[in-house]
Amino acid sequence: MNQMGITRRQMLKMGGILMVCSAIPAPLLAAVEKGKDADFDKPLDRLSSFIAIAPDGSITAFSGHVDLGTGIRTALAQLVADELSVVFDSVTMVLGDTDKTPDQGPTIASATIQVAAIPLRQAAAQLRALLLRLGAERFGVPVQNMVAKEGRLYPTGQADRGISYGEIVQGQSLVLPLDTDISLTRERRYIGQPVPRVDIPGKVSGAKAFVHDVRLPGMLHGRVVRPPYVGADSSAPLGHSLVSVDKESIAHIDGIVKLVVAGDFIGIVAQREEQAIAAMYALKVEWKSWSGLPDLSRKGLHQTLSDLPKTPRQLRKDEGADEAWNQAPVRLCRDYVWPFHAHASIGPSCAVAHFTDPQRLELWSGSQAPHDLRKELAILMKMDESQIVIHRHEASGCYGRNCADDVTADAALLAQAVGKPVRVQLMREQETGWEPKGTGQLIRLQGGLTQHHEVNVYRMQTCYPSNGSTTLALLLTGAVANEPVVLQMGDRTAIPQYQYPKMDVVCEDAAPVVRSSWLRGVSALPNVFAHESWIDEVAWMAGADPIAYRLRYLKDPRAIAMIDALKQRAGWQDGPAFQHRRRDQRILKGRGFAYARYFHSKFPGFGAAWASWICDVSVDTQTGQVTVDRVFVAHDCGMMVNPAGVRHQVHGNVIQSTSRALKEFVSFNSGGVTSADWGGYPILRFDELPEVDVLLMENPDQPPMGAGESASVPSAAAIANAIFDAAGIRLTEVPFTPKRVLAALSEKREEAQ
Amino acid sequence: MKLQVNGKYYLLEGVERSTPLLYVLRNDLALNGAKFGCGLGECGACTVLVDGKPARACQLPVSTLEGCTITTLEGLAPDEAHLHPVQQAFIDEQAAQCGYCANGMIMTLVGLFREKPNASRAEIKNALAFNLCRCGTHMEILQAAERAKAIIAREGGAV
Q1: Do A686 and B129 touch (CB under 8 A)?
Q2: Which among A172, A319, A353, A636 is most buried, taking Cβ atoms within 10 Å?
Q3: Nearest to residue B26, comparing CAs of A347, A390, A397, A434?
Q4: What average pLDDT does this structure show over A107-130?
Q5: Does the model's ipTM exceed the 0.95 cut?
């Protein structure tokens, strides 16, 4: 049973009294109505959002989502402050703590502002209405004559008689179920302002800001030893692969407190961190040999992805699509291949665990999904969820699912084994090797065109072999069997936003090849790489300007307005790609375009922000090196709660996705991941940056849309299209490495001859 | 072993001579600034100043640092109200997303501006080339570097 440990009595101690929740359990609701004190100590089960006010007027607001470095803590507080009309500084956000916040699922899909914040805003609006009602009673005036402003209540025109929110709620005890019909405020004191992030001063001055900085009295240090099948999934014998552990091999190391072995889980607890590290490397372990991975090399990935066992799932099939395909006088068929990518968080994941008594496990974790993690930990530790609390702390940037959950479970096992608080941090190679990857993806496009190169039918097969990645300790200890679980995640933005006359779109669901889950843009980024590369090529076949050609099929007025604005901003010159470019120089320059609105979550999903790119590249025809010189990016996420935060997310998306498109490729041998560190998995550096010009569309009256991923989505296609414009070569496999560019240039020369 | 960190002397007991400085700073001195990123000197998250120059704390055996002056992020400013110009510029430009790399960025820039208070944009990029950021905060960090330069110039050039 998922219980919320917090009780009304605890809420009262916080000074509160006024709460708004989405779902009050029936018995508690009855108690509220009857005012029975005994029920004050009942845990509140599954509240969707709530807010408490202390007598000093300070507001505590709770969200089950967490801040991944996107500034969501600040943005949510802005929303609450305006909804309640209080000063920003009086709002404190509690994020992701499993005892205090509602289970709103993992923080994914750019959904915090767009989705998870809505009940919070409604709760705040309702609280304001309640305050007005209480104020009206206090002053003996009709509620419509009451004003709630900047934390004070007063009858209209009598601001000098005002009393504070805190004052009026003293002694009250009210819990209201959430009214989802309540209208949200038009107040815009903080919404729309670049309010400085509350976490940055601490982070730049060495304050305790990260889960890595948690220190408990008597805390010991742990490290884990993983099986040699680095980053493997269900095909590897995880859970029954350990042959032997030589305890004596670490006997010479000082400070060892305990060697913990449970199934395939191995951990070492030591007095000091460097002792634990020395021991993890010194420990002699024999594992079963295994080398069962298919060919995941640059050359082999396409075939391997093609050969995977898959289950087709028809996402859309228009009547007559088959006939249109059979009769198409012109066809354009292309396979697009996306590689395995790593989150590559700068800080390896870390957690601290402590059994405060044998029945209560407290954890400090950087998890992106603390409520889900608690469910897994309950299985692992054979405890009730109510006995486990996860305090969510900020961690190194995560863009889907890194090893944060894994290390939390590791810490729990080690803390249990030694009966003392234990801090565990993964080593670099463990983080890079074992983090659930953004999976390799094959997208097969077949288009039937008219003789005039108009699109008649668009056929797509896409495959994103992945799942939610069971927390590793569960598999290693055998608590959960290591089986090929399939999650349906390949369908993000799989339906093109162009109104092609007929479409036939299939998602082929498949189990992971290696440990794979979601990574920023999930399957949408690869799917859009395919959509936007393909239409660009068709536009070229039609002898048309790439943007003008797209606009024949694009009917979404917001998309069109954004693209028009971007064209102006970048000074786009109409005309077909490549043809007007000079070809006699070593460095060829080109410009490419791509557009998408990111659609995420379970199919058909829903749209987040719109984004489009115009980018300028240089292609060195001697070395094959592609440089992204400049990116113009337009972004429409409706109301921007914090425009500086949105801009920073756009910057981050542009740089991270440029890095992914140009450089990143996780390497494997038949036994697992071989990209162990930054040498083996280089990312874009300061001296390789493009200039970035951000155009934020102003639509303050439109609902806020997720901004955490959208600006990534057009990246690879825009760069590929720019490379075509520069050099006349179409790269259909990411990343666009010098070797691939040279091979394509050479192929092109051969064709010309 | 005796270590001088942020102007204070610490006597280290029960610490192996080969222990990387990073673990002493974080675990013995309870300093949060320097972060473990790779343990290989590749990412820069652990950067501190040794005798005023940026150095990677994950790579430095603590025994080699006796007699050196070590400055961490915490030692750049006397208190929160008087932050170092580079720290202040990072706040002004909001130059952190997750912020895990921020320590290394700040310490590297402080080291650069000590040598070259007027460092050009290209010099700044080169100085930061082996400080990795995954969130893509590079634009804000470069703006912060420019702002820090301006603050330093206004305050008379001392870093």
Answers
A1: yes
A2: A353
A3: A347
A4: 87
A5: yes
